Amino acid sequence: MEAALPQSEVRRSFALSVFNGALFNFASRLIDPPLVLTWFVSQLTASNLLVGMVTPLGTAAWLLPQVFVSPRIQRMEQKMGSYSIAGVIRVLIWLLLAGMLWFVDAPAVLLTSFFVLYTTAWLVGGMAGLTFFDVVAKTIPATRRGSLFAWRQFIGGLLGLGASWVVNRVLNQPGLLFPRGHAVLFLLYGLTIAPAVGAFAAIHEPAGAPGIEAESLGEQLGRALRVLRRDDVYRRYMAARLALGLAEIALPFYAVYAKRVLGAPDGMVGVYVAARVAAQLLLNLPWGRLSDRRGNQVVMRLMSAGAGLAALVAIGLVMLVNSAHPEGHWLPYLVLPLFLLNGAVLPAKVLSGSNFLLELVPAAERPLYLGLSNTLMGIVVLLSGLGGLVIDLLGFSGLFGIAAGLSIAAYVCASKLPNTREALGKVETA
Q1: 105 lies in a domain?
Q2: Residue 378: partners with Cβ closer than 8 Å, 6 or more residues away
Q3: What is the distance between the alpha carbons of residues 371 and 374, in angstroms, rounded to a whole number?
Q4: What would the pLDDT profile of 100-150 be if each residue is shown by its tens digit?
Q5: If 0-12 CB within 10 Å is exposed, 13-18 middle and 19+ buried, where does residue 213 land?
Q6: What is the pTM of this model?
Q7: According to a count of CB atoms within 10 Å of the terminal CB, is the N or C end of the chain lower?
Q8: What average pLDDT does this structure show over 235-252?
């Protein structure tokens, strides 16, 4: 059990973490992977596979390495130094990528450079992810973490409305022909995350309990396998998370469908980002209160239901367009409900993800559980990038149908989990 920090230190850590999250959320809207980056890649290649890989590749690169670096992180009593180094590298990568987009014209070179640098940036970010959640667990009480992540996303959402305006203005600027508009967005992203990294690095991290020694990667992987065999609750939790991760196979193709089938112009990206951010903004704080008071099992169930509803609405849209063949400049607006629904459930993603585990595992074992969970998620998210192949085989309706089925499966798995808030209460009163 880690010692409780003074309330003044908790408030300071809370404020710095909120500032960090708000800036990262604002920056994320500038390059919004399912929208801005997917749109960017779709103009460099006609390959559905490559277009569909943009979002899952970044997420998988963040998740996959974590179980392999967790032995080193676990042995550290203080871990903030690794976060700071990773943050500096990420900033430099995005500045380099912006420079390449500004000065290089060859589509093949741009496409290759983008995927290499983009993947590297997310790999480095993933190595800092374990440190981030461990520091949060050390400095913020469990009963305030829901509010912490809600405020991070709420303020980030307010800023994100401005980011959607920036995206719209930059991509519609006549003097910034493709890909220079995206170069500007990548530059702004790098400049924005720099102070965000600095803010989190300023948190006073207390020394934690020394981790259980893992002298080799093999030993760490052996302990991870024992966790999977022996922890029934953890297996059910991972089944729900993995189903939700696979359900995101459809997300990048909402914008692609709008562009290729409904004729959405480049400027509509800003409108879609704004709709997504607005819905996220309205529901951030309610999700946080729900997490603090009712627990993350309820959050995960509702998130699964929302993701399933978005996929069903997408199926209905495809059927309508295929049967009625409507025409008009208003057609790109038909996909707005999809981005509104996606934005509405976005705040629940963090709450029902790694935040869920922070309440369930021993402090010394956090890097192992987080690393294992995120590596497994990385494999699944990478598989979700095959959405482009699914479209080639089954069309948009087939892809959206698979996403709906996976969301239903996630809801069923989440319903079998214990209420973590009740479980935490029992531990604290024992």
Answers
A1: yes
A2: 59, 60, 61, 62, 63, 64, 65, 66, 126
A3: 5
A4: 999 988 889 999 999 999 999 998 888 788 788 888 888 888 778 878 888
A5: exposed
A6: 0.69
A7: C
A8: 87
- Residue 209 is assigned to a structural domain of this protein: no
Q: For residue 319, tell me if it sits in a domain.
A: yes
Residue 182 structure tokens: 């995206």
Per-residue pLDDT at 376: 83
Share of the chain above pLDDT 70, in %: 89
Total of domains in the chain: 1
In a domain, 359, yes or no: yes
Q: Place 4 in a pLDDT band, splitting at 50, 70 and 90.
A: low
CATH code of the domain containing 246: 1.20.1250.20
What angle do the packed helices 268-294 and 142-171 form, to 10 degrees?
A: 180
Segments forming the whole domain that contains residue 418: 10-204+217-429
